[in-house]
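Tokens as discussed.
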């Protein structure tokens, strides 16, 4: 993989959609939308020109690196300034579809049978402790809210 496609998301990286690879401990710039598969996703909407995002970065990256299996898929959607200033069509589209107008914004999301079935949105700064709390609470809620399998 080229160095251009691996970059820890932030102001020095190109706009785009980044997915964390736990095995390689790297962030990979995706050339397609990353939500094709069912699963649990945690998505950080980041703006290169956002001072609050730079403060949040250290909390976010520490949170991602501390996740234990089974893990969600961590994603960073990076633009310069929301959908208004974004050189990535994929990132711009996600800012629009998820209606993001405050940064940082974090989504906790479950996708099942090709559809988003559960989602929680937080706008504004969080520390790592609160990210961990929201992650655990969302997982618990998602499990309680999941359709029950019929007994045999």
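Sequence:
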């Amino acid at each position: 993989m080229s160095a251009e496609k691996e970059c820890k998301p932030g102001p020095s990286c190109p706009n785009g959609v980044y997915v964390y690879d736990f095995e390689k401990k790297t962030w990979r710039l995706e050339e397609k939308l990353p939500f094709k598969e069912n699963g649990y996703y945690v998505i950080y909407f980041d703006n290169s020109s956002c001072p609050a995002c730079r403060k949040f970065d250290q909390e976010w990256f520490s949170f991602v690196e501390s996740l234990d299996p089974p893990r969600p898929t961590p994603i960073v959607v990076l633009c310069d300034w929301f959908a208004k200033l974004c050189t990535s069509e994929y990132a711009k589209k996600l800012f629009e579809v998820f209606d993001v107008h405050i940064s940082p914004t974090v989504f906790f999301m479950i996708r099942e049978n090709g559809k988003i079935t559960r989602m929680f949105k937080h706008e504004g700064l969080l520390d790592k402790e609160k990210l961990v709390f929201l992650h655990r609470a969302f997982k618990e809620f998602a499990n309680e809210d999941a359709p029950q399998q019929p007994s045999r």
